[in-house]
Protein 1
Amino acid sequence: MMSAFAKRRLTDWFHQWRLPLRRFLLSRAGVPAADVDDLAQEVFLRLMRYEKAELVDHPQAYLYKVATNVATEWSIRARNRYVHDEKWLGQLIDLELPESELERTESAEEIERALNTLTPYQRQVLKLFFEKDKSYAEIAAELNESVRSVTRQFRKSYDKLRQELSPKG
Amino acid sequence: MDANDRRRRAGSEAADWFSRLQAGTMERAEREQFVEWLRESHIHVAEMLRIAQINGALAHFAGWARIATGPKTDADDVIQLPPLGNSTSPSPESPLQGPPPRASRVGHGLRLFAFAATVALIVATALVLPQLRGQLIQTERGERRDVVLADGSQLQVDPETLLRVKYTDSARRVLLERGRALFHVAKSPDRPFTVQVGDTEVRAIGTVFGVEQRGHGVVITVAEGKVAVRPPESSSPESPPNASTRGQAESRSSQLLLTANQQVTVASTVGRESIREVDSQRALAWAQGRLIFQNDDVQQALEEFNRYNRVKLSVVDSELAAKPVSGVFNAADPEAFIAFLQSVTPLIVERDGDRSITISTRRSPDGDRY
């Protein structure tokens, strides 16, 4: 079972990683999937430079850290060298700006729409995790399920939401 | 399998890894597998980032109170297999289903309808088909897949493999029609797990083992636990003279009992099987996406790479084709293998886009090899 500390640490990594990449990945302006792939390609190449043993302890942390580094470097490069370059590069520069009310509403609506494509039970499982802040094991106990079964509901939910929410190429 | 299918499958795999990471139950060996998966392709990296991003969006979503929930239904119990490469049931990103969601309202409605239809089809298939023909698991050239079955058993399915899974209350049966797979069998003493390849039957007793259908017969390799192999009735199994002295290998009537680090080949023509001691990690390296060559010739090595990749490798001259090669390689990285060959022998490498790579011996102007 994941400790509260481990969970918080995971969330912290995510926060560090999220800001530089937020607009990049979910921009309403529609970042072409090809550009996301360019970023992933660079992250992929950098991951190859690490020894495997080094990555195994905290693979997710490494992934996010490398992705953050790449996104940050690209935003600086965009500011310095490609001022007139593609629109999405420009968006990376505005990291410090809070998202607008409109943007927030739109993205919440989009998430709600996607959530409603899940089964009621999958929504129940996600709600316990994200709203009630329960661990997989706690959710399993509450629903009288195995952790494996709860994990499967998350897998199916993420898979479906990925299809519903991500920008297309 | 086209780029959409590949992307779709990578997305499903990323969702699987992310859920398992988040569950916090992954052992070191699983994390190693995750790192290997991540380093297999930049598409895996991209899909992992996307799932993480979605997770972040959900964590910051303020409208959870409005989200309706409900109890578990049969549909929630359906084991969702990753998409089949040649599946006719459309995935929501499939071109069969029209434009992506934001393209138009009409497209969106159609897509929802198509999705509902797909769910209905999957439910019907999951409920009815296993009783008739079994769940079908099929991979194409260049496609590897991890599948979790209803009982928690896991299958690592190699490229160009066709399996049928038939589960009943009293038995778990898998028919391997072609190719190879590694089976991590969940313990369930009341429901024996058997893999059938032609007339050969392999029975597991809570274990990890690989079954390969090859030209010369069926190769069974055990990594953990015990496995009983029943060769076809017509063949008369024989253990090597020293097998009984090893203490672990037994041959009883028509059944061979294999334990960890043992391998047997049930030949398709000659009725003779012998249990060999092997390093199962090496013998089953294919399940981890690694290819291990030990004095195999270049031609054989290229054919192995071709099973795992879309780019087709070929060798022009017989001298190079027959050259022995040894080493451990990533099955998804034929370029690394070509680079390795170049480092040991002078080569001419010709590429046709990303479709094919042809290699031949580089010769000096007077006809001799450099």
Protein 2
Amino acid sequence: MVLTEKLPARRPAVDALKAGRRRLQIYLPIADLPVNIFLVLGMGLAVGFISGMFGIGGGFLMTPLLIFIGITPAVAVASVASHIAASSFTGAITYWRKRALDLALAMMLLSAGIVGTATGVWLFTLLRALDQLDLMIGLSYVTLLTAVGSLMIYESVQAEMRARKGMPATLRRPGSHTWLHGLPFKLRFKRSKIYVSAIPVLAIGFTIGFVGAIMGIGGGFLLVPMLIYFLRVPTATVIGTSMVLTLVTMASATVMHAATNHLVDAVLALILMVGGVIGAQFGARTGQRMRGERLRLLLGLLVFAVGLRFAYELVVRPDDLFSLRQVRGE
Amino acid sequence: MRRALILAALMLAGAVTPASAERLVVSLSNHRVAVTQNFIGEDLVLFGTVEPDPGKPGLRPSYDLVTMVTGPRETLRTRRKQRVLGIWVNTDSREFVRVPSYLSVLSSRPVKEIAPSDVLRRLQVGLDNFLLPQRLGSDIADTVPEDPFRVAFTHLQAQAGLYRESATAVTFLTPTVFRAAIPLPANAPTGNYLVDVLLFSDGVLKARTNSALDVTKTGFEQYVADAARDYGVLYGLLTTLMALLTGWFASVVFARD
């Protein structure tokens, strides 16, 4: 009896949902196409979850996803920048409260990061004019993601093996001096307890800013290993510091993309942000319950898989050899 | 319907007609399409009637009607990929200069059956006959319809829903009253659209008239698009501020003690 009453009652709901599907579409003013608001919100949540879990921006996942739902690579890259700025700001505040953030180091990386971002935006504009932007984005993704992904997998599998043998699984900090430490212009960063040359710091900052602007990624997944391996920044301050850097490079990338290419879609960015910051909070909680090596292995596999996906696209004959690009409107 | 026709008749009283004395009177269901937050495309309807030649009462030939809708002009580049060192790279491109961003050829029969090919070519009726000038070196000219870049161009535009040729979109309700369905996809570019209506009989153009419509972004969409274009830096700063606020808000809402 209860069941028979329930069945017809469900129908109006389904009909309302179907009618509502029209209203769920939201028109993106810069991307110039309608998207399903819940699809984009869901993507924001999912990527935010992953970014919170691993302490990364998640741009390397979000940009390809946006391209997949039909947004042009140029608009995707430019809009994701502001989304990453939002999620890294949330993270940075959390780490600031925990005092797990080296502001001096972040500022030093930033000064070079902004120059890198400006160079990246300039090259982005140039490549777009030469019809080679999509190729460049594709190639950078393949190279970076497969390289970083396989390194992470290798490193975390080794750590896991060591753990099996009963040895401490923590990351070894081999000989505290490399050739990088022999370079001049040495600076002391108190909170991170390191004493290094300014040259590698500036070089890392520039690289992250540059790569971020071209690929629409915050570069957290690159910056964290770089800071650990090259500068020997302790794990306590590395993620917080990386988040400050990501925040500022992505915020300036947003402004620069908006000023030069006029491609930042604020409506798209807002939906992504809202989903992203909520997802990040839940992701961070899940991440804290997992072991570091397991987490790095998962992230490595994810990064590697996305890299392979891009490689596949470059190598396999595309369905259509032709593509269009607007040169001028009226 | 009658009101629409009277309105149209008033508006298009001065419509030009070629040698023959048939007259075309058309009216569009909507002259202004507003692209709003939930715009998912729109179907416009063009109603029209053929006023037969008063000099030849009783003689009523069978009419064919073609409606061509062209959107605002834009310059597009068609790029061709080739395999270079194992990967697919854009190696070759052709620029299509000031071509319609939207083009639909709607007819009551396949255009090839309506008139001989030389007539169609002269009037630019049909996707194959419409002038799509390409930049060829220092020249700007249209190529043969079989040109691979031209074929790819129309094909890609058709895939995007922007170019179409339909032989069923125009229906004659009576021998002289017709109705044409004009589909505007969600990605229809904003701007002025020209609606060109051509009446054929026995392969000869009998009458021609036109109408126009506007696709405009309104309200919020217009505001955002304008801001992004005209005040890039400010727009970027505001978007960044929005990002910071969202991020800060989340950290407050989800703050744990």
